[in-house]
Fold this protein.
Amino acid sequence: MIVITFAVMKGLNVLAKSMDKQVGTLRKNKLLTMIATVVFLFLFLPLVIIVITSFGTEAIITFPIKGFTIDWYIMALASKAFMSSLQLSLLVGIVATLLALVIELPAATCYPETNLKERN
């Protein structure tokens, strides 16, 4: 267990050094920062609107919302089909995560650090 912990910490350290170089490049280039911000807003803003409108009382999406309710969430949590789908999704996610850890952690400990330094 201790060996796995050290391997994970070593891998995170190498990843952090790599990310510092990439983030530094992003901060130096203003155009790249603006493009990244626009893409982020393009992807994130619809999700925010959906979450906000999900608390409305109307059966369709209206903005601004009329009223405030959590009835839609109560109905979803009361649905047996939704709950069984949620349980299956969580189970698949947990199994996939554990399987990835079992495969990737030993592989990361076998990968020599010199190869990572040579690439940068």
